[in-house]
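[09:14] KT: can someone run the structure on this one? pasting the chain below
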Amino acid sequence: MQVMTWLLAFLSGAILGTFFFGSLWFTVRQLPTTGWPVRLIVGSYFGRMAIALLGFYLIMQGDWTRAISGLVGFISIRFMLIRRFQPARREGFGPLG
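[09:31] RB: done, structure tokens below
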């Protein structure tokens, strides 16, 4: 039963991570077209943080192991998105090439 609780917390953290980092990506993509970039950045930050903190509060339900499991899901989505959307490396470019 405990494993199912951790799995549910992990999946919930992954959903939160998808929302958080997807919203961050959307915000960065909108920066060149907005007339108020500071307002967009600050508003997006506080909105993302409020939803993420509320989500972790609901995931945790007073149990630190659920919080850790949710955090692992959150961070694993970050790594998967970085790997998925990282630009291709080209040989001969950069400080060492």
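[09:33] KT: thanks! Residues 39 and 45 are 10 Å apart (CA to CA).
[09:34] RB: yep, looked fine to me
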